[in-house]
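ZP: hey, is the MD6 complex queued? I don't see it on the tracker
AM: it wasn't, my bad. submitting now with these inputs:
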Amino acid sequence: MTHTDPAKVTMDLFPGSTIYESKREQIGAEAFVLRGFAQDYEADLIQAIANVTSNAPFRHMVTPGGFTMSVAMTNCGSYGWVSDRKGYRYSALDPVSQTPWPAMPASFLDLSRHAAAKAGFVTFASDACLVNCYEPGSRLSLHQDKDELDFDQPIVSVSLGVPAVFLFGGLSRKDKPERIPLFHGDVVVWGGADRLRYHGILPLKESHHPHFGKQRINLTFRKAV
Ligand code: MD6
Ligand code: FE
């Protein structure tokens, strides 16, 4: 790699941080799994998710093609990702309440900034957090994240609750995806050359987590605008 080692950047920015200790697995030129990175934030995340979902409850959105998604979704931050018969887009208003999405909780911003920095993206400031709720059988078919304006900004994705298998494909839909298991507390960061890789989640298997029960919650942080 020609650029500065991202691990060193993190150490310089946050000297003495225990965050430096969590394991970093490289899954692409500019894509990493930070194993257990969100563990330290667990209590704050659980409280913040409850606050967000009490104001903007999970709902099953409809795709432009007319299919109801098996993953239930909501958002927080200045913009939220929405889908309906008219298409996919970011919206400042929750279409259910017609009011702004709940503000981004401080713990969300902090976690997403630190995780991005650990992967070498030191200027990341998320303005949109999509919150996904998976039940057994819920899946996310192979897709690219391309509704954002600036593809130089990475994506930070936090897994909580029961484990799931992440499909990590290539830049063409035809490229055979890798299967990457993701567990409670794992964070995936990707950007740069990997930003537009196809990806998805296999149907969730029945399992149990002490706080989240049968569910998997995923927080996906993006710079939308
Ligand atoms: C999920 N994640 O993990 C769905 N997108 O539930 C995504 O669609 C995703 O994990 C872009 C970058 C990372 C992701
Ligand atoms: Fe995605």
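AM: back. The CA atoms of residues 113 and 124 lie 6 Å apart.
ZP: great, adding it to the tracker
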